[in-house]
Amino acid sequence: MGRQALILAALAADAVPGKNFRHFQKPEGQTDLELLRLWDDRGGSYELKAPASPDGERELATEFSVLKVLRNFSSELPFEIPELLGQTTDADGIRISVFTLLGGSEPDLTKFGPGAFSKSFAHALAALHSLENAKVVEAGLPDYAATQILHNKVTELDRIADTGRVPSALLQRWEQALEDVGLFRFHPTITHGDISQESVLVEAQSLTGLTNWSSLSVSDPAEDFRWLIGAALQSTAEDTILNYRALRPQADENIAQRAVLYSELELGSWLAHCVEEGDPARIAQAEDLIEDLRTQLEAGSLRDIRASSFIGLNTISIPNQTPTQAVLAQEEPAAWNSEAEPSEALIADAELSDSESKTDPKSDELF
Questions:
Q1: How far apart are CA 43 and CA 110, in angstroms?
Q2: Of 347, 343, 333, the residue nearest 292 (C-alpha)
């Protein structure tokens, strides 16, 4: 569907005069955006984006705003972000944009143990979450208070329960977590909001770039760990959290528990989405993910998601060790939800303001 690649290549040349594009490739499977990847005669790589639906138009408009804001922080971010190089319009007045295409490859978390990836991922998120919220608020991007975030999660749980396809034990687990006031004592930060296999780029097992910025907001920093917690090896997830807390000690003590909760809720939300779409095959796949989660719950292998002090990974008493060494030194690591991995292809298809959140507190603890 959409326009031919050659037509899009001509529009890219019009958007960025002087570039001699030699090769191009059109990715498949896009619905809201038309994409074309291009390479020039000097080895530069680029990506054309054009909206193919109202949702795609809103997504691109948000991404323009986000990238403009992030450019103010470029010296503070230890990773690359796309750069807008030029724009043009087609015969129908639709805006065509050309961005730099970041190097690197999508990560396979099942192959990454504690070390380079967990350190670089933690460094990236600690830097992002330490940026000044005011710039995002001034740009008119979403700004959610902790109370709003909690309300949205309760609404999400109601939507999941309405499917009638989720075991009561899981619903009760999630409801009890959402009723635990201590779990949601945190200060919102700038968050990416859509970190996934498709938005993370790595080289030599280190995170080098982040893309897909249309979901950036001031929100719960735990959201940015949701994908990692759900898909990474247990030791890698633990090492990442330890490195993150070492780099950002003001982070609240329950960020890992909320990330686990959000990772599990994502499976329920995917099921609700599939039910709404009425796709029998996807419904069956989503139900399998939920059944796997239920099995883990019955086996007692899911991590405790109740609020607690961060004594967590039995590493505080281990002197003179880096987070990676501490994780490897554990004899009995805490159980994480590492087996219920949401299908990257499935989740990719799915689609909260206190005044205190707009300051720079010394700690993420509200009370």
A1: 31
A2: 343
- Is residue 27 exposed (0-12), middle (13-18) or buried (19+ Cβ within 10 Å)? exposed
Q: What DSSP character marks residue 73?
A: T
- What angle do the packed helices 146-161 and 255-277 form, to 10 degrees? 40
Q: Retrieve residue 229's tokens.
A: 């917690």
Region 158-181 average pLDDT: 97
Q: What are phi and psi of 62, to 5 degrees?
A: -65, -40
pLDDT in tens, 3-18: 899 999 999 999 999 9
Report yes or no on whether pTM surpasses 0.85.
Answer: no
- The strand ranges marked E within the chain are 21-25, 33-40, 45-51, 84-89, 95-100, 189-191, 200-203, 206-210, 217-219
Q: Measure the CA–CA gap between 62 and 70, rounded to whole angstroms.
A: 12
Distance CA 273, CA 163 (A): 10
Other Cβ atoms less than 10 A from the Cβ of 73: the count is 16
